[in-house]
Amino acid sequence: MRLLVARCQVDYAGRLTAHLPFANRLILQKADGSVSIHADDRAYKPLNWMNPPCTITVDDASGDDLVERWTIRNKDADTLTISIAEVLHDSAHELGVDPGLQKDGVEAHLQALLAENPETFGAGWRLVRREHPTPIGPVDLLYRTPEGLLVAVEVKRRGEIDGVEQLTRYLALLNEDPTLRPVRGVFAAQLIKPQAAVLASTRGIDCVTVDYDLLRGIDNVEDRLF
Amino acid sequence: MRLLVARCQVDYAGRLTAHLPFANRLILQKADGSVSIHADDRAYKPLNWMNPPCTITVDDASGDDLVERWTIRNKDADTLTISIAEVLHDSAHELGVDPGLQKDGVEAHLQALLAENPETFGAGWRLVRREHPTPIGPVDLLYRTPEGLLVAVEVKRRGEIDGVEQLTRYLALLNEDPTLRPVRGVFAAQLIKPQAAVLASTRGIDCVTVDYDLLRGIDNVEDRLF
DNA sequence: TTATCAATCTCGCAA
DNA sequence: TTGCGAGGTTGATAA
């Protein structure tokens, strides 16, 4: 990884065109060839960047009163041009391959917990299938109630309007099949936004707010029993 | 901006929990207090980060064979813990405030061009209003055809299924108003994905693929005439 | 390769 | 403050 602190001007041309006037910035060149330009604020997002794979060409541009000019291109012919006027710091470091991030608590885990705990929705519910395939995508969870009715469940970490729309499309499709009909819908999330809840109710979809920590607790208790 | 290259272990607890085992990484501490941790690949996304505003506490952790332990917290009590075992590089740089990015070519510009060129959709079309307000959000463009019919246009850079859903909601609402009814819909984008086009046709919505460069050309020609 | 969907999304704007 | 939509979204996964 090369760390370059420099007074520079940056131009990007690709899906949009963007320009950064001369100022002091950090330029990061990584082992995969990627480049990013950071200002002295915001943790997450660089001012400009070029994702790998890309190629870097370095030109002498002393005629333009520059130390160097970098031209970085990817396969879509997007170009990032960095005009370096003054170098304030330049160092390189061998970091090696990163062992990578271990995550927990995402939607997949929530779905798995709900698959293992059908009673979250109602007494006597049974899981029919996870990721039930349809032509327009998989239904997260499909249950059968004690009355023998099918219920399609859409799981989100945060329940927003898009999720209700998605479930609505699944329900319309499932209810076209006479062997399944009638199929009800349940929108399950850790947090359901009011607008999503209102839209769901107009569609006849029930909302269930899920307590992730509680479910995980139930799961742990069951683990201990077995 | 402080640049720290160090062998470190990182733990995040917030919306999810995540763990990074010991390895050499770049730690960026910026003037706004934010912190990000980068591996030697990927231009855009840090492995871990904490957005501003946040507070950093530095502890001596020599008892754990560490140089330092940083604990970073935001207002939601998310915590990012960086355990630093060895420092390979440490430098600080005054960059000043960045003049910021100048952009062109986003959806807003596309919408402006379409507002100025109603004939893109049909001869004799007139613009009624940009950002026509409704209770569920603004309709991008509202036109009247030579026949006196209203047409709501949703503009996207890339036309996908969500955009069709959005326009459908607007049309349902507009058509509830007897003083406007009937209102047709047009989905306009630089590129319309097949799935979106199919969904639009089932909703009776027309699709128009817009050539941004051509429109901009027309615009330039008009500028010259005036 | 393409399509789909989640993300500690981030970021900006408006109510 | 919250909500909503765009983003050079990025990134992962399945078809």
How is this fold's topology laid out?
Two copies of one chain form a homodimer.
Chain A: E1 2-13, E2 17-29, E3 35-38, E4 48-50, E5 54-59, E6 68-74, E7 79-92, E8 102-104, H1 107-116, E9 126-132, E10 139-144, E11 150-159, H2 161-174, E12 183-192, H3 194-202, E13 206-209, H4 212-225
Parallel strand pairs in A: 11-12, 12-13
Antiparallel strand pairs in A: 1-2, 1-7, 2-3, 3-4, 5-6, 6-7, 9-10, 10-11
Helix pairs in contact in A: 1-4, 2-3
Chain A binds a DNA duplex (15 and 15 nucleotides) through residues 12, 14-16, 18, 42, 44-45, 48-51, 78, 103, 105-108, 137-138, 156-157, 160-161, 166, 193-195.
Structure report:
2 copies of one chain form a homodimer. Chain A is an alpha+beta fold. The first copy, chain A, is 21% helix and 44% strand. The first copy, chain A, has helices at 107-116, 161-174, 194-202, 212-225, and strands at 2-13, 17-29, 35-38, 48-50, 54-59, 68-74, 79-92, 102-104, 126-132, 139-144, 150-159, 183-192, 206-209. In chain A, strands 4-3-2-1-7-6-5 form a 7-stranded antiparallel beta sheet, with no helix packed on it. A 5-stranded mixed beta sheet of chain A has the order 9-10-11-12-13, with helices on both faces. In chain A, strand 10 and strand 11 form a beta hairpin. In chain A, helix 1 crosses helix 4. Chain A is elongated. The relative contact order of chain A is 0.11. The mean pLDDT of chain A is 89. The interface between A and B is large, with 56 and 56 residues. Chain A binds a DNA duplex (15 and 15 nucleotides) through strand 4.
